[in-house]
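question for whoever is on the cluster today: can someone run the full assembly for these? two chains, 1016 residues total. i dont have access anymore since they changed the login thing
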Amino acid sequence: MVKDPVCGMEIEEGKAHTRQEHGGRVFYFCSPKCEAAFAANPTRYAGEGRRRHGRQAPSATTGVREGVGGVKRIELPVFGLTCDKCVQAVEKALRAVPGVKKATVNLTAQRAFVDYDPTHAGLPALERAIRDAGYRTEGAKARFSIEGITCASCVTKIESALRATPGVLNASVNVATEEAVVEYVPRVADLAAIKAAVGSAGYRAIEAPAPASPGAADKEAQAREREYRSLMRKWWFGAAVGVFTMIMSYPWLFPLLRNWFPRGSPQLWYIWAGMGVASLAVLAYSGNQFFIGAWQALKHRSANMHTLIALGTGVAWLYSTVVLLFPHLLPSAEFVEVYYDVTVVVTALVVLGLAMELKAKGRTSEAIKKLIGLQAKTARVIRDGKEMDIPVEEVLVGDVVLLRPGEKIPVDGEIIEGSSAVDESMVTGESLPVEKRVGDEVIGATINKTGAFKFRATKIGKDTALANIIRMVQDAQGSKVPVQRIVDVVSGYFTPGVAILAILGFMIWYTFGPEPRIVFALIVAVTTLIIACPCALGMATPMSLTTGVGLGALNGILIRSGEALQTAQKLETIILDKTGTITHGKPVLTDVVVTGAFREEDLLRFAGGVEKSSEHPLAAAIVEGAQARGLLLQDAESFNAIPGHGIEAGIEGHMLLLGNLKLMRDRKIPLNALEAKATQLADDGKTPMYVAIDGKPAGIVAVADTLKEDSKVAIRALTSMGLEVVMITGDNERTAKAIAKQVGIERVLAEVLPQDKAFNVQKLQLEGKQVAMVGDGINDAPALAQADVGFAIGTGTDVAIAASDITLITGSLRGVVTAIQISRATMRNVYQNLFGAFIYNTLGLPVALGVIYPFFGVLLSPLLAALAMSFSSVTVITNANRLKRWKPRTS
Amino acid sequence: MTWDRILVDLIGLGLIGFIVWFFWLVKKKGVRAPTTSGGYQEQMVLVRGGYTPDVIVVEAGKPVRLNFVRQESASCSEMVLLPDFNKSAKLPEGETVPVEFLPKQPGEYEFACQMGMLRGKLIVE
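^ ran it for u. tokens below:
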């Protein structure tokens, strides 16, 4: 019997449909279909066949079976190539690897093509060579969960089997999570080959979702869920024992039990001894994390909440046991009382608190989960002229991706064919679909609405806009709000301080307290240890920060750090860069004025035709304006650019002059009324250009940078929030004032050279104000860095804009308004939490110490203290979660 | 004052003294992160109830890579933050998570879990 290498069917050699030789071996096929499949890709099936037969394992060092030999050609993506010199460096490094026959590197494709002898050189060696040359080659990364890993030796076995697979760059196996992470070159190896390699080592690989995909978030949720269930089991055990101990600690309070277990009776002693054992079990099972945590912390000479709980419950248990075993230590048998109930109930309640905290905490980071969940899972690419669906991790830079209406765009890229409307709301927060044409950028994770198009992938994996956004949000969530530093100082002293307070309390009650002194002193000390909650203090700011930053991300606002978030709410002055921030930053044709000698269309047709030959930025505006009116533009017959003046050109048999006042004066063109018209246009912030045809004045074409649609609304909102809005621009005073008037800005800094913007920001800061600067991240970088908070107006996929504290993914100024609103809401939440946590501790501690006892004769029970402590940290998290309901207000 | 009261107070004062000395007065010795062939100052950090080692000494101006391995399931330690470097990382159980950054200014920087319960210090020289 032999096996069909394609379908795996067992067939008799004689009855086989057909046979084929490959690599010195004979393969048998059950049907023509299998034969054709084999012929199309013999290496794949030949490899499979071999592994199934268990003969001749692939060579461990090169990943290629001995004896196959021959030269193999491979294509490796190389990152970071910028110049010809780098190309040579990489080529040289590759050629130096033994076994490499030929290596060429293509700068534009960012690829290395290597011909190598697989028996001598392996892919890892090639990768090392590229890395040593200072560049990186990166394959796709895939994660597999592997069944049946039990020992460390399996790890090496699987890892070496994986590394031996052609196309695999690196592999690492994690025993704890039973997972393998494999880095591979997608065109050489594929998921099936990797799975087969794991299979050859005797294990089964199941594709696990890649990191930063919905699956990774699921895994985290699963880990949380596991921890939650374990905590709940601990709680139920503690609670069950707790009810029993609570009743039996005070049997004289219950009519029936009073008779059965009188105080001091031997049967009660036995019950209590049993409770002692049961509560020890609760400490060991339900409370083990407190004791382990306390011990670990102690080893690091630090103390935390675990230390306090372990101390409190431990002391109560020890005291009870000592009293039980040596009752004669106490002055009177009347004082013999056990506190096993404190041990058990406190442990149970704090565990319950932890479980609830975990549930609530899971919700704070929902924003990031939402972002991760946006990612597409598969992509349809065209390779070698064939359409194929592949996992998004295998898409390479340069791949052509095909998209139909309604599909999710898998990676970032540039449209090369077709057009469509794309819904980018999930990334930019902009609710209207954006029209995309050839040459336009598309962002991964956005949704194609109407048309079908092809685009070339430009950014993949962790370079995509979405991956950058996720990383930035994660980093920001991990940063610190400046007020947190005060909290940090406090909490550094907090836990040991509470322990000292507890000891002091014990001493005072023991020395001056009423009888039984030892009992009162003990209760006071234990209650003090338990009521103090460093958690509420520790969580107060990070929980709100996580929620606030996430909230920003969902609204298209990337907040870099907690510091930016805190400063944004204190802002007093906002400086807006004019070009590109208030306006589109691109001039368009706005007015055409004619003297009557020519019709408007003719004038524009001539001007547009002539300007087609010009490279001046304003020329493009005229050409586009003319084309937008459906005019057919002829080419200029002659063209002469006069620098600083304008142009002189011949078109459709006319001589045309187009330029400024100087040009008209030089050529002695009488302007008459046109000059007044031009002044008026200039007053409106437009740039007028005179047109003269055949030596006679013909009219004016004016271009201007137009306002963004929502600039006016946003500026009004900023003003109504009590902020001073200032416009900064390089334009002349007149133009600047005109624009400012249109959007309702009163203070204008005009004629500011780009390099002086930072200085102007500083000048405003010297007026004693907290100043924000809004501009584009590249030209305005120094000014953004100088400002207390720098807002960068982002466009498209380039979200990782340096120098900004806050990045607005949509170009809209409304983002500034929303960002400040979020900052205010978040900081309000932070202060609420901090206030709550401080008040709780400053009120709770004195009460626990018995300050109110002399006046009211009441002492706080340790059980109530445990309840209050658990409740306080849950309150903080719940309050932070409240922030999630926040919605941007548009006025 | 009876003898037992004096005894309790003396023990109490002794304990307070011990706490002050143990937690606040003793300077912890740090572990110097060795520089690896890649040019990074690398250090493995075990995360279990605390960070081991919890005081790491590095040189300024050279990139640092801290490899965190979390070997517990308690949710407190699921994230590590280096707020001074604006870095944070999720630490899935059992996985080695590298955190890279460049300390420019000498000084003492803290790293901690999200709640600030577990703390470590990075001393940049």
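summary bc i know u wont read the tokens: Chain B has a mean pLDDT of 84. Strands of chain B lie at 31-32, 41-47, 51-52, 55-58, 64-70, 79-82, 87-90, 96-101, 107-113, 119-124.
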